[in-house]
Specification:
Layout lengths: L13 H17 L2 H17 L13 E3 L4 E11 L4 E10 L6 E3 L4 E9 L11 H4 L2 E7 L5 E8 L6 E3 L6 E2 L4 E5 L3 E7 L4 E2 L6 E2 L5 E4 L2
Helix pairs in contact: 1-2
Length: 214
Amino acid sequence: MNSYPHPLIAREGWPFLGITFGFALMVTGAANWLWALPLWLAFAFCVQFFRDPARPIPGDAKSVLSPADGRIVAIEPVRDPWLGREALKLSVFMNVFNVHSNRSPVDGEIKQRWYHPGKFVNADLDKASTENERNALWLQTASGHDVTCVQVAGLIARRILCYVDAGTPLKRGQRFGFIRFGSRVDLYLPPGTRIKVTIGDKVSASSTILAELQ
């Protein structure tokens, strides 16, 4: 598990950076920069995709922070499929140009972790929450609030990385995982939670307050 301070380029991206840089350099030396241009563009894409900047941690223990960069695509009352309770679902869709480091939305302890294999449909669609490959964390705060945070793979994303398990304490904004190349994170919050964002809002991991626990 990584916490701050950490590299500005996520460690998950180092192999991709090394491979694209090596091939681009090799083709540039063997031919010319025009032949190597697609490879240099691929290297530049990897640099922007795997960036992992430090972020401010606003609010207090009641604040629910965004677990990912992206756009709000769902805010709705649902039944939490992991804890079997009524909940407010809030979903953040990440495109390939967003930071893909995932960070804890609340201060709490992981009570349980579930992994569910599945499909790889477009993560922007509602059915991705129930059909795609996903990894769920049940977080319980010191005040007894239960929050379910679910990493969902997408159409291009085929690799969910999670570095924590049951019994691990997490602080708001603490890095716990990564999803490669476009995906989604769903939050299931207790009923009565005060939502502070709307559909279509762009949010940033750790630095955007999505909601307030009551």
